[in-house]
Amino acid sequence: xxxxxxxxxxxxxxxxxxxxxxxxxxxxxxxxxxxxxxxxxxxxxxxxxxxxxxxxxxxxxxxxxxxxxxxxxxxxxxxxxxxxxxxxxxxxxxxxxxxxxxxxxxxxxxxxxxxxxxxxxxxxxxxxxxxxxxxxxxxxxxxxxxxxxxxxxxxxxxxxxxxxxxxxxxxxxxxxxxxxxx
Length: 182
What we know:
By secondary structure, this protein is mostly helical. The protein has helices at residues 15-25, 27-36, 46-61, 96-123, 125-138, 143-150. The protein is elongated and about 55 Å long.
């Protein structure tokens, strides 16, 4: 799963920021495809694909971020009564032509972001390998390690806690950090 940590409180995103998120969501799947080959791509990226598709669809149908479809909201959801709509109200259906145009726009965004993510990974294949090696060694990477890799340096070891684990003074009760007894 790909996670994005906020750098500040945000209420809105630009078109470019959303496209960057979509590109990032395809990074893991593309890395598998590039390293293992297309026949060995796993289902591991299914949540990332779902999230990328939802972002692209929202760009087109909710946020007005499609030049072709314009700044309109297209009601696609069935909607639940009592969640912002009256019990008798139904969303306006969209025509088959509009639904097709929406699907084409979503596909265009996804294909463009997928191609951009692949271009970035191909251009930075050395960093991809360095990241994979660091993950095998360290298991998780923090911002410091990622910065090191992106700068072309060997990632530094993660920071450890400042105080070493202590042993129990009564000799019987183990404390956190003591080795387990068999």
